[in-house]
Amino acid sequence: DLALQVDDVYWMGNDEDGYVTSVRWSIVGTHRGMGIYGPPTNRQVYMWGISQHRIKQGKITEESMLFNEFAVMQQIYRD
């Protein structure tokens, strides 16, 4: 179960020079699989983040992303 929501999108540029974007997003999911956070806990996790892109000729050529990983860990390991 995963639900992604785009909260805000800011952009500037044009078709000739390309665009830069900043996207604020949030996601809700369930920690079900084995991964970097250890065995599944089946806990619901909320995460927010910001992604920035450089777009040229309709393709993303650069991307940066920031999200609050510490808050994710607190939700998974809250006991």
Molecular structure report:
- This protein is mostly beta strands and 79 residues long.
- It is built from 1 helix and 4 strands; from the N terminus they run E-E-E-E-H.
- The chain has a 4-stranded antiparallel β-sheet with strand order 1-2-3-4.
- It is elongated.
Number of helices: 1
| Radius of gyration from the alpha-carbon trace, in angstroms | 16 Å
Average pLDDT works out at 93
Approximately how much helix is present in the residues?
Answer: 10-25%
Please give the alpha-carbon distance between the first and last residues: 23 Å
Strand order of the largest sheet: 1-2-3-4
- Helix-strand category: mainly beta
The unreliable regions are none
Q: Tell me about the biggest sheet?
A: 4 strands, antiparallel
Overall geometry: elongated
Number of strands: 4
Tell me what portion of residues adopts beta-strand conformation: over 45%
Order of helices and strands: EEEEH
Tags for this entry?
mainly beta; 4 strands; four-stranded antiparallel beta sheet; single chain; elongated; 79 residues
How are the SSEs ordered, and which strands pair?
Layout: E1 2-14, E2 18-30, E3 44-56, E4 59-67, H1 69-76
Antiparallel strand pairs: 1-2, 2-3, 3-4
